[in-house]
Each structure stands twice: as structure tokens, then as C-alpha cells.
């Protein structure tokens, strides 16, 4: 599948050297002197095309078969942020430490990630709601020395909710982050290939790839309804649309349980040792060939699988 188009400014002048990439992948390019670009994808992907250029607002385009794309970037008008001076009992170092723990991860992969422009980060702590947030106006430049990727990550959302006034990860109720990313492979040395394979195994990316392939087993994922192992075929109907190359997953509603509003909830076991849980608050969602799934806000993981953060994050075209 090819994606091509032209990037111009408000005056219809071509933008040379604009960055064009598929979110979450290593698939990217830059525009030529006439503003043109072309990308080749191995398959249809459930992602967005990100187009950015210094001094202009980033554009997010849905990926469709309509070609070529005409993408117009508007100049970005920077407004000075109002600085409110208030007493804060937490230092920037403490807030940065929390951000790194919940964004990069605390395992071996996360500890070997460096945010090269961490000065771009700024923070806010709502002491009444016990919510900590992080922001960055520019993409974070992350060097993952463990998996040997350079990652450009545009932070869209980052939030930590506490059960008491604290800045420690041990006092968290939950945390989340969202954004767009582009990966550049630094090296293909054998040791990094082995590390990437280890990060992939047991990840949500592998889970959804296995789901559409109906691949289950004791050395892969096993599905449990409560404490009883169950057949995935009883709970998931999988239909592939040959035109769009997307898989439609229909989730069978479980018998009503008290104080719950999910469609279905399962325990999952990976390789006989990693225990996680997945909850579906939708009865239909879509998965592409890469293992990317729709309805992110209605499908929740907990347990071991959530310990994998940016440090273990792989491009969605990994292994394909």
C-alpha cells in the first residue's frame, strides 16, 4: 500500500523537508523540494499519518485509499503562557522522577532511556483532586539505549491519580499517557534484536496479533474466565474485511456480574508466569495486521502487561 501527497503552507507554497510518518512505526520520510512525499506500507494500518514542520501546526491525517493527499499546514502562533507563582511542596526533581517512572518505566529497559530534551517538560499538580499532569509543547527526544531506538514522542496526555497527597509511585491509583511516536533504528546488532524480542513477548502488541491469528497456548497466552481456563473461540468472533484488511472483533457478553458494567473481563497468562487482566467495555472493536486496536478508551489492561512502558515500546511494524 502506497501513501503519497503534497505538503504546502497557507499560500500553497511547498514545504521542503517536512517530516511525514506513520504514528508508532519506523515508517517515515521527508518531503522533497516540491513538497511531495511517498510512503510504502506492508499492509493497511489502523493508525494516523503525522505531518510536522518547524513553525507550523502538526497535522494528523487518517490513512485512506484516497490519493494523493493534499496537506496544508498552518503557521503556529506561539502564545506566552501565564505563569502562576504558587507554593508547591514538591520539587521539579521529584516531579520529574515520577514522570520518568510512569512514562519510561523502572525496569532495565526504562532505566536505560534518556529524555534528551527533558527541559521541555512542565508539570501541574492539582492538590484538591490529587492529580498530577505533565506537558511538553515540543516532541520529546528519547534515546532508548536498551532497545537501541531513537524515539520522537509528541506527548498528548499524561496523568497520575493518587489516593493521597503524594508524589510517589507507590501511592498511585492509576496513571496513563498518550501521544504520537516515530522510531528510528540505531543498530541491528544481535544483542538488540534479542532484547526487542523479549520486550515483544507478552506485550499487548503480541496479544492482539495472536488474537487475530487465533494463536493460543501454554507458551503464549492462555485465557481465563475467572479462575477457569476457557476457549477464546467461545468469547471472540473474528471477521476479516478483505478490502480494508481490518479484523472486526465481536466480544460475547458475559453473564451479568454485580457492580460491573463491562462487556467481558478475562485473566490472561503469558508463558505460564506473567499474569494480567483485560476488560472490554465495548462489544466490537477493530484490529489491523500490525496488532493495533481501536477503542483504546474502552479496552483496559492491568497486571504484568502494564509494567511495559516507553522503555519496552516497540514500533508497531516490528517483526513485519
Q: What would you note in describing this structure?
A:
The protein is mostly beta strands. It contains 4 helices and 21 strands. Strands 8, 9, 10, 11, 12 and 13 form a 6-stranded antiparallel sheet that branches. Strands 15-14-18-19-21 form a 5-stranded antiparallel sheet, with no helix packed on it. A 4-stranded antiparallel sheet has the order 3-2-5-6, with no helix packed on it. A hairpin with a 4-residue loop joins strand 16 and strand 17.
Summarize the structure.
With 320 residues, the chain is mainly beta.
Helices, strands, pairings?
Layout: E1 2-8, E2 19-22, E3 28-30, E4 36-40, E5 48-52, E6 59-62, E7 69-72, H1 92-103, H2 108-111, E8 113-115, E9 121-126, E10 131-136, E11 140-144, E12 149-162, E13 172-185, H3 190-200, H4 204-213, E14 221-225, E15 228-229, E16 236-241, E17 246-251, E18 264-270, E19 274-280, E20 284-287, E21 299-303
Parallel strand pairs: 1-7
Antiparallel strand pairs: 1-4, 2-3, 2-5, 5-6, 8-11, 9-10, 10-12, 11-12, 12-13, 14-15, 14-18, 16-17, 17-20, 18-19, 19-21
Largest sheet: 6 strands, antiparallel
Mean pLDDT, all residues? 90
Quote the beta fraction: 35-45%
Distance between the termini: 14 Å
Structural class: mainly beta
The gross shape turns out to be globular
Q: Which regions have little confidence, pLDDT < 50, spanning 5+ residues?
A: none
What count of helical segments does DSSP give?
Answer: 4
Give the total of beta strands.
21
- Rg is 21 Å
Q: Please, how many domains?
A: 3
Order of helices and strands: EEEEEEEHHEEEEEEHHEEEEEEEE
Helix content: 10-25%
